[in-house]
Design goal:
26% of the residues lie in helices and 24% in strands. The chain is of the alpha+beta class and 471 residues long. It binds aspartic acid.
Length: 471
């Protein structure tokens, strides 16, 4: 392993000669000497190139912001009057002995020393590698890592296994369109990118793993709507032999632990989290993701609440995913119904009154997660599809594998998925989820750095047996 001396550790080296590998953050040329702010992933430090180090001074005079350099220097304690309290390296200064330029940099397209909110978003996205150098982005991305790491450790401690599920698969209904991927080997056939790992995670319960989780990429081909991204990340989990309350309790424990340990400046308004029925939430707040904060000005107040007892079905005028019934599921077809409604489901009556086992979790007016106890009996799941007007043949083709798995000895099970980006957005006081993703797409679903989506070469289309209709 290469031993680096990091900027954050310089104070520990007072009186020593060290070498740092850094970016030039700022250069202040005073003619006879040059001041440099040096930056690495851990922070910044001030360096000074004195007139007696002539070679170093000559190099320093050429340096520009964002050049990458290796600097050898002496760590000096600052005179008392120059000490900056409470600032990283406010008590030291690096006296530069020599500088090696590792790479030059063109003049940055925009200022990275600010929080970036004053810069047009498209400009930032086009040069995201540069934008990510700003302190705000470095913090967001590093907190994202810490949150994911915390979730992994917590769930590992609760006997969960992290299991990857396929990205090339068949559509799973989550109320959106799926992205299709053409198969070259099987011309005319397509994979779908998952809208969620829903079916696979239930199949993992059939497979006897009992506790699964995954930090899962989900892809949904939606018309561009506000703060959505075509691909986003879920913290997805599923558990066997549990009740609704078990899943809610586990998630509540994890969220509280996460907030307390990683965001100590935040206050959770009410613990245990309040539980509202869908009817109560709609009546009192007019939404199923209520903002129940007592002080909406307080940036550090987090008001979590659960919403339960959703209707299982709603009327639809649209053709459902592939059926033609006038009822459709409200969340996903695999969600169960409360025990007292199982007869209604089996007899396909009082459909509009059937209450599901769905639970959603809201925080400060955002839906940050949702899940449910599932239907684990094949005959019950079949009824859902029948209510939605699917033919027997359709049920078999699209969901035969799920029915067969349920019929193979699948335990009662349930789970949840958090919208990880949205949760991070609120925790990091950001206005949209793009600010907590390393490489987000625009609101119109474009990656303007990589220029995706883009037309495919004629040869590729030919191999895939695809012809594109010219508009
Ligand atoms: N698959 C669901 C979703 O993506 C979450 C769940 O029910 O566990 O919203």
């Amino acid at each position: 392993m290469i031993m680096r001396t990091y900027i954050k550790d310089l104070s520990a080296h007072v009186g020593q000669e060290i070498t740092v590998s850094v970016w030039v953050d700022v250069r202040r040329d005073q003619g006879k000497m040059v001041f440099l702010d040096l930056r690495d992933v851990t922070g910044k430090a001030q360096a000074v190139v004195l007139p007696n180090h002539t070679e170093a001074l000559e190099v320093a005079q050429k340096l520009r912001p964002e050049w990458v350099v290796e600097v050898r220097g002496l760590v000096n304690k600052r005179p008392e009057k120059n000490i900056k309290e409470g600032v990283l390296n406010g008590d030291i200064e690096l006296e530069v002995l020599s500088i090696v330029v590792l790479n030059e940099a063109e003049t940055p397209a925009f200022d990275i020393s600010t929080d970036g909110r004053e810069i047009g978003e498209e400009v930032r996205l086009e040069k995201k590698y540069l934008d990510l150098r700003r302190a705000r982005m470095q913090r967001n991305i590093s907190m994202r890592h810490k949150v994911i790491k915390h979730v992994r450790a917590y769930l590992d401690g609760q006997s969960f296994l992290e299991i990857e599920t396929p990205l090339l698969t068949n559509p799973t209904p989550e109320g959106s369109r799926s992205y299709l991927v053409p198969s070259r080997v099987h011309p005319g056939n397509f994979y779908a990118l998952p809208q969620s790992p829903q079916q696979y995670k239930q199949l993992l319960m059939s497979a006897g793993f009992e506790r699964y989780f995954q930090i899962a990429k989900c892809m949904r081909d939606e018309d561009t709507r506000g703060d959505r991204q075509p691909e986003f990340t879920q913290m997805d989990l599923e558990m066997s032999f549990v009740t609704r309350e078990d899943v809610m309790k586990l998630n509540e424990g994890l969220l509280i632990d996460l907030v307390t340990k990683l965001f100590p400046e935040k206050k959770i308004q009410t613990v245990p989290f309040p539980v509202l029925t869908y009817a109560e939430a709609m009546e009192k707040y007019g939404t199923d993701k209520p903002d129940i904060r007592t002080d909406k000005e307080d940036q550090n107040l987090l008001a979590f609440c659960w919403v339960i007892d959703f209707p299982a079905f709603e009327k639809t005028t649209e053709d459902t995913v592939d059926g033609n019934g006038d009822w459709t599921f409200t969340h996903n077809p695999f969600t169960g119904v409360k025990d007292e409604f199982i007869n209604d489901l089996m007899e396909k009556k009082n459909i509009g009154n059937i209450i599901s086992t769905q639970y959603d979790i809201a925080m400060n007016g955002y839906e940050i997660g949702g899940g449910g106890i599932r239907l684990h009996k094949p005959e019950a799941l079949r009824k859902v599809f029948e209510i939605m007007g699917y033919s027997d043949e359709r049920i078999e083709t699209n969901f035969g594998h799920m029915l067969a798995a349920l019929a193979s000895g699948t335990p009662p099970h349930g789970g949840i998925a958090w919208g990880l980006d949205r949760l991070l957005m609120v925790l990091l006081n950001e206005p949209n989820i793009r600010e907590v993703m390393a490489f987000p797409k625009t609101g119109e679903g474009k990656d303007i750095l990589m220029q995706a989506p883009s037309p495919a070469p004629e040869k590729t289309l030919k191999e895939l047996g695809i012809s594109v209709q010219k508009k």
